[in-house]
Automatic annotation (TrEMBL):
Domain of life, source organism: Eukaryota
Gene3D superfamilies assigned to the protein according to its UniProt record, in alphabetical order: Ribonuclease Inhibitor
Name of this protein: Leucine rich repeats-containing protein
InterPro entries for the chain: LRR_5, LRR_dom_sf
Species in which this protein is naturally found: Trepomonas sp. PC1
Amino acid sequence: LVLRKVETISAFKDQQQLLFAFCPSVQTVEACCFEDCYSMRRFTAKKLTTIRRYAFKRCVSLSQITVQNVTNCESYSFCYCHSLVELSFDCLLGLPDALFNFCKSLAQINCPKLQQHNFEAIKDCGNVRITTQTNSEIDKMAKNQKVSNKKLRFQEILVDEFRERKNFVKLSRQIKIMSQTRRRLGQLRQSSILK
């Protein structure tokens, strides 16, 4: 999906074949906009500032999304996004309740300007770390191990199974075996001719 001039998106719910969205001018993703877009892996919108309720609900394959300019994010926007690992909100001041409800792979949320530390935002997510600027409130919460001023570093994380790569490896092995078999047959013929 490529939308170059659209500023507000509202109607792609249940588009299960959608793999990516490139929307350079989009500023707002409306409520339920991409809900149940199970196959969508990437959402790129560098001007994005507002994400409404349930906007990316059950986008289970979503692993990359540009949220650095987001200033307003509503509850449940990313619930059940199982492939999200790390997000960086450079402008967001607070995390609403249940923002990442059941995001089981989520490991880190970077929010340098975060003023409210709402652990209900990461309820039922597992072990999520929120990184932000150091202040006395963070020092108190650091004992909780959910808030820190130090970012975790990640290696590349495989989010999906690469069928094409597996097929290519399988085909390569078959070609290698066939080549070895031909070479061996050639050697056998050569040795039988010499005898």
